[in-house]
Design goal:
Layout (H helix, E strand, L loop, with lengths): L18 E6 L5 E7 L2 H7 L9 H9 L2 E6 L3 H15 L8 E2 L5 E4 L8 E4 L8 E3 L5 H11 L10 H10 L4 H4 L13 H15 L4 H16 L3 H19 L11 E8 L3 E10 L2 E11 L6 H13 L10 E3 L7 H12 L4 E3 L4 H26 L2 H15 L7 E10 L2 E11 L2 E2 L5 E4 L8 H23 L89 E5 L2 H13 L6 E6 L4 E3 L14 H29 L12 H11 L2 H6 L2 H5 L6 H14 L16 E2 L2 E2 L1
Parallel strand pairs: 8-11, 11-12, 13-17, 17-18
Antiparallel strand pairs: 1-2, 1-3, 4-10, 5-6, 5-7, 8-9, 9-10, 13-14, 14-15, 14-16, 18-19, 20-21
Helix pairs in contact: 3-11, 4-9, 8-9, 13-16, 14-15
């Protein structure tokens, strides 16, 4: 690692004009290219205290050995030169979108004497008109097959064309009237080029003219009793309509636009683009990139615009480009796009209407693409094994952590503080074993104390179960099945204790899904750590299920992961030490920097960006965060939707819903007599009196209850009745 001060230029050497700068390493390789309105200010920012730099920027400046710059006259020139150098030098610290697949285009070779319609991939060629990209090549071929009825343009290869011209016989398409057969002189080169240009016009969105012309010719042929010609024109118009139906109308005003959406996390970003031409989605493509430099959404959008339109011809740049965030220098980027197109380009964020709705669709596609990219690793057994081995090596564990538990704290400005516990076994999520906690030990916001409390509560029960049940015995087989050594416990039913006491640490080898274990009922609420004191445990006092298997969570994980940095890790380790547990590894994953923290270590463990272990830890952490925030939001919503019936002792959710369903609303229930309340199935007189009293106490004017008749007294403008 180099010391940036060793190659830092003096401020007077750097001009204060627009320009592009390059960082080079000790081997003179370009590792980063950037542009700036003011080179002096921008370059100086890289040479501040390293502790104040973003980790990725810090890595870049310590890898570099020199910096140089080139002055340009305008910001637009800086934008163009930056793109050119990124393409030329391929710097390792610049964001580079890698296409997640090779997208096919419908191409018309207008640079040839007899233009040809074909499927093309790869780099674009000069003089070729492109349409797309399409998701699949077969979609292009279906569209072309329909349109050749009306626009019989050549589709054959050069060899087939020359052979037909030599023999004087056209190919099969020429015989079935899906090619005008210019190879044998049925049409002149000028007539064939006109057909190709009409084909391009139709694909570009100018469809109404051709269909109206066909329908007009069809009606005229019918009037002249040329019924065969009229039928052929009818079929041609139908073929064009079917070709149009393959791309649904999404913008009614026949807009030409590209919509760009970005989904990102700390390590990667996925980008999706919808190409809308004539109000229809003509193509879609997606990229995935590593965030190798400190870049926000606006920066990702700017990089995407450069790489999307840097090599495109002018006619490929649409009138509108809709983005989720505007680049830092919007004016320069807009001017550059306008120069590429040869006309004004609107670069903006959609605010309302159909365009905003379509942007939401593109955003969902980007989120799904990022999720799919991340879960591809999780589906592969070899990859999961390698991830666990990398984690064990990085954390210094004796064996791969086949069972990982991750904890996260969630709250809203100190209210409704909750925690989550998620479980991964063999690198896969075990959602049936997730648990949720309410923080009980104190009020307010303190993530460190909350983490200490949650870890302490979970493993205190582990020790209690260990003392109560002793060492685990061989699990008896389920009826009709062979014994399964070390069989996992079955899940508890809804409403049971959320965190059960684990048993003594097992050997590193952890079995797969237990044979005969039944999953919780679909849709049943997951149990939390906060059961009512009066609840009874249907299992025996020895901590086993009715069939003799141990309780779920009756054994500890090999690794505890907490969402946070050094303070949260220290709190978790302290909670385990207070309980005398020293055989469970603890680490933390700090979200902003993606650094792994270990107890008592002042420096974090930095896993390589390509590490499968880092991806697994990130997935575990993100799942714990998702589960925690979902629970926190549900608690907040429940608190907001609180009802006076919540204060009635012994009145559960089922009977509350029955009351509301019977009377229609709390207001009507408040007006009901005790006898009327008793008519609701499951409501006795004592409960009805409690309901009436609770509603009376919660009423705005606190109406009284007539103890003789059971009527709820109401107030009106004239007094009580």
């Amino acid at each position: 690692m180099a010391d940036p001060s060793s190659y830092r230029p003096s401020p007077g050497q750097i001009p204060d004009s627009p320009g592009v700068y390059k960082f080079r390493d000790e081997h003179r390789r370009v590792i980063y290219v950037g542009k700036a309105k003011n080179l002096r200010q921008r370059v100086a920012n890289y040479f501040q205290d390293l502790a104040h730099l973003h980790p990725r920027t810090r890595t870049m400046v310590t890898t570099a050995a020199s910096v140089e710059w080139t002055v340009v006259s305008t910001e637009v020139e800086a934008l163009q030169l930056e793109y050119t150098w990124i393409k030329e030098f391929d710097p390792r610290f610049n964001v580079k979108y890698r296409d997640d697949k090779s997208y096919p285009y419908l191409a018309v070779t207008l640079n040839e004497e007899f233009p040809r319609v074909q499927v093309m991939r790869g780099a674009k060629k000069k003089g070729v008109r492109y349409f797309g990209p399409y998701g699949h090549a077969w979609a292009i071929r279906e569209t072309v097959d329909l349109m050749l009825r009306v626009f019989p343009v050549r589709t054959c290869s050069a060899g087939v064309f020359k052979n037909a011209a030599r023999t004087g016989r056209p190919c099969l398409l020429g015989y079935i009237d899906k090619c005008s057969a210019p190879c044998v002189g049925r049409v002149t080169p000028e007539e064939h080029r006109e057909l190709a240009e009409d084909f391009c016009d139709f694909m570009a969105g100018r469809t109404g003219t051709y269909i109206r012309r066909l329908e007009k010719d069809m009606m005229q042929a019918a009037e002249e009793m040329e019924y065969e010609r009229a039928a052929r024109l009818r079929d041609d118009a139908g073929a064009l309509k079917r070709a149009m139906e393959k791309s649904a109308v999404v913008l009614a005003d026949a807009t030409d636009a590209d919509l760009i959406a970005v989904a990102e996390d700390e390590l990667e970003a996925a980008l999706q683009i919808f190409h809308v031409r004539g109000g229809r989605v003509r193509g879609q493509r997606g990229w995935v990139t590593d965030k190798v430099e400190a870049v926000d959404t606006a920066g990702l959008v700017e990089h995407a615009l450069q790489q999307l339109y840097g090599e495109e011809r002018g006619d490929a740049v649409p009138k509108e480009v809709l983005v989720p965030a505007l680049p830092e220098d919007t004016a320069a980027v807009s001017q550059w796009l306008a120069e590429r197109r040869g006309a004004q380009v609107s670069l903006r964020i959609p605010q309302r209407g159909d365009k905003k709705d379509l942007m939401a669709t593109v955003q969902r596609n980007a989120q799904q693409a990022l999720g799919l990219h991340k879960t591809k690793r999780a589906s592969d057994l070899t990859t999961r094994s390698r991830a666990l081995e990398e984690i064990a090596e990085a954390l210094g564990l004796d064996a791969a952590p086949l069972r990982i538990e991750c904890y996260d704290i969630s709250h809203l400005q100190g209210d409704d503080v909750v925690a989550s516990m998620v479980v991964f076994e063999d690198g896969l999520a075990r959602k049936s074993e997730y648990r949720r906690f309410q923080i009980k030990g104190f009020e307010g916001q303190d993530d460190v104390r909350s983490m200490h409390e949650v870890i302490g509560r979970r493993f205190k029960r582990y020790l209690q179960e260990k003392e109560r049940t002793g060492e685990w015995e061989q699990t008896p087989p389920v009826s009709g099945e062979a014994p399964h050594p070390g069989q996992l416990p079955s899940p508890p039913g809804p409403g049971q204790e959320g965190v059960q006491a684990p048993a003594p640490t097992r050997p590193p080898s952890l079995p797969d899904t237990p044979q005969g274990a039944q999953a919780p009922t679909q849709g049943a609420p997951l149990p939390t750590d906060d059961t009512d004191p009066g609840d009874t445990d249907p299992r025996g006092s020895d901590g086993r299920e009715d069939d003799g298997r141990p309780k779920r969570f009756a054994y500890p994980p090999q690794l505890v992961v907490v969402d946070g940095g050094q303070p949260q890790v220290a709190a978790a380790r302290r909670a385990l030490d207070e309980l005398g547990i020293d055989d469970i590894a603890v680490c933390g994953l700090a979200k902003r920097l993606e650094e792994v923290w270990l107890p008592d270590d002042d420096d974090p463990v930095v896993l390589p960006r390509s590490s499968e272990g880092l991806y697994l830890l990130q997935r575990v952490r993100d799942e714990a965060h998702r589960f925690a925030i979902t629970y926190q939001r549900s608690k907040r919503a429940k608190r907001i939707r609180s009802s006076p019936l919540d204060d009635v002792a012994g009145l559960g959710e089922t009977r509350k819903q029955a009351l509301i369903k019977h009377f229609g609303s709390v207001k009507k229930l408040r007006r009901a007599t005790i006898e009327e309340i008793c008519q609701v199935p499951g409501i006795g007189r004592r409960t009805a009196e409690s309901v009436a009293a609770a509603l009376a106490a919660a009423a705005p004017a606190a109406p009284a209850v007539n103890t003789a008749t059971g009527e709820i007294m109401e107030e009106d403008d004239g007094g009580t009745s």
